[in-house]
Please model this.
Amino acid sequence: MSGHSKWATIKHKKGAADARRGKLFAKLIRQVEVAAREGGGDPDMNPTLRTMFQKARDSSVPMDTIERAIKRGTGELEGVTYETVTYEGYAPGGVAVLVECLTDNRNRTGSDVRSTFTKRGGSMAEPGAVSWQFERKGTVLVDRTAGEDDLMLAALDAGAEDIVDDGEAWRVVTPPTGLHSVRSTIEAAGFPVLESDLTMVPTTVVPLDADTAKRVLGLVDALEDNDDVQAVHANFDIPDEVLAAVES
Model:
């Protein structure tokens, strides 16, 4: 898991100056809107909306933009109706991949995702073929300046399950329902939180050599470039030296 989570950390670091920030904003706004539609517009009563609201704020989405998305979700403003679709497949090297989408056209999105898998050396799979290899978890990314021992005490007392060394940050793993309380406790203790999210964590990982790693990361990036794709989860593990080369 370390190689995959470190790659996510690298992408977070680069995201602040990413030329595709507008695309990121659009995806985050869509997530807020759907969460509000499915569970109501009050973040205190809707844990999913609370998570997506915080995720959007972590990426500096303006408050008025978030508020409009919530109103579209609750029907106070007119908006497009999106549905949640998850696709499963395999990347090069036998890596299991889950692709979470929000779409207003299932046929278009399914066709685009399948085409991306094929062009990048992967293949689509039937529902359930790879999802059993993942567990839903909450994650809180904490700046590396936080001391590990003090952070661990605060996080575990709040109900966290583990702390993972991601190189330039600590990744605190929580039960899905404990994400908000763990993050709140960590922030109250004075530790700098970079972001938090609900994600799918692999139960086993596939180690990759340099060539296969580049092909897998190419597929993941191509999938994430699709406007309808909200998250891509995969069970690869990549050596630190390969990640360093990718980051440079």
